[in-house]
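Record type: monomer structure entry
Structure origin: computed from sequence
Chain ID: A
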Amino acid sequence: MKNLGGKAILILLECVGLAFLVYRFVEIKQDAVALQKDTSEAAITPVALTIAKKSAPTDTITLPGNIVGWNEAPIYARVEGYVKAWHADFGHKVKKGQILAEITTPDLDAEYRQAVADLESERARNALAELTAKRYVAMRENHALSEQAISVQLAEAQVQAAKVRAAEQKVKNIEAFIGFKQVTSPFDGVVVQRNINVGDLVSKEGNLNKPNAKGNLFTVAVVDKLRLYVSVPEAFGAFLAPGLTADVTVPQLPHRHFTFKFLTVAKGFDVNTRTAVTVFTIENKDRALWPGSYANVHLTAPVDRGVMTIPTSALVFQEHGTQVAIVGEDDRLHFKPITVDKIFDNYIEVTEGISEGDRIVNNPSAALLEGDKVRIVTASVGYDIVNPTASSPTASSPTAKHVGGD
């Protein structure tokens, strides 16, 4: 019985040992297969995909513009003289006819006194000519003077009367200029420029104290309503019509957007720039916008250009031009040339070369070659700039997986 029990134990131990050897053999084989699989997958370049999106059926363009007052008037002196006083400074609200400055005009005053004296002299000569003509006519009945002498004297009286009228008109003209000794505002508005000081010599050419930079005395502008001038390229010419609006920002208020309405457009393009001057307008009751401001003008027109957008990180630059890397149905890489329409900060618009169904490699490695086998991985959120929340078109889990054959 003892020998029989010992043999049973020995047989049991041999079976256990054999089972252990078989288990280890299978485990080692599985590890080898897994290692081979991992090695094969590691040998295939992983890529993250992005997709091309069709652009919105609109086209937006950003242009520089100039904001001016609804009315702006540079004001010059009509007479030459010295600034006696100015009564309106930068930013002052003024009414129509309000005095902005006063000018002393010694030359004009002397000319006026001379004109008045000449008028008195002509009046005296006219009175003498009229009296003489009456005496000559009175002597006609007695035939004391010839008819020729009488006719000459009557004509002389008419000439002298005409000289009086001319002298009177000269005085009136000078009086009209004397009225310009007071510089006034042409309309209700705001003073946006003052280029004079007391004592400056001014004339109709501006401030003569600065001969190399002659300028107006004042500029008055209506600021409750403004105009925006922008030169628009001819590609947008068909959309320059009532109903079009412009989204505008200015440097002094970078986070505030203003909506200007279309007013009018020049019905012709500048042959040098191929642009048309377009005018927009806006109510500026709060006076947040100032005349003379530089404007960034954003125009959006309903244009379906049929372009696709992809992130700039998907571009490949080679000797054959701009390309993208496309993953085919066999998970092999193919480079396709594209036609770029516009380049923005983080994406580009493509007119030819790709379609919505293409699997495009995002940020392709420089080591990738035509026909290379690749495996697709899912990009992290934010990796795809154009589609930051979109996962790879064929990946379904955050872990890498092998798609192609060995």
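Annotation 1: The chain is about 25% helix and 35% strand.
Annotation 2: The longest helix spans residues 2-43.
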